[in-house]
Amino acid sequence: HNRRINGLFLRLRSRCGNLRLISTGEPHLMTLLQQSVISGAVVGLVADQRPSKRGIHSTLLGVPATTFSAGMGVLHERTGAPVWFTALLLNERRGELPFSLVLRRVTSGTERWTAGQVISEYASQCGALIRRHPGQYLWLHDRWRGGSEEKGGV
Asked: What's the whole-model pTM score?
């Protein structure tokens, strides 16, 4: 994790003034997120695809990996809040809005899922989008750098 890049993105994302951005280093982060959900706030989490700790093992693009940090799954387990997969796709046609929003429900809304189920379905939806639009997926790290169980090719 690069502190300078994190700082840059934090400044860029908070310019609009109506969002509260919470750093992963903030004390009692999960409690703060739970309270936000319970009070009716919409909570958006940026999925860390190569978590340094407490990631959940799943698959992405058919390759076993520690796919995403557990936060969204744990928050769903504790609150029952719905989880949505979102992404922005660059529109390649001129004359249209520059981006289109992809919005898909991850959890069923009628039952609570385990954190592992949430992460697995989120990874599945992410992988499906990557397969449809491979040129729009970017990562800046060795995606499958772990032990032999995490190595593979796409």
From this structure: 0.73
Q: How far is 151 from 143, CA to CA, in rounded Å?
A: 9
Instruction: Give the tens place of pLDDT for each residue, 35-65.
Output: 888 888 788 877 766 666 667 888 888 888 7
| pLDDT-based confidence at residue 31 (cuts at 50, 70, 90) | confident
HSE-CB at 88 with a 13 A cutoff on CA atoms is 5
Residue among 152, 126, 150 at smallest CA distance from 55: 150
3-state class (DSSP) for residue 134: helix
Instruction: Provide the Cα torsion 64, 118, 24, 143; round to 10°.
Output: 20
Closest of 136, 107, 129, 112 to residue 60, by C-alpha:
129
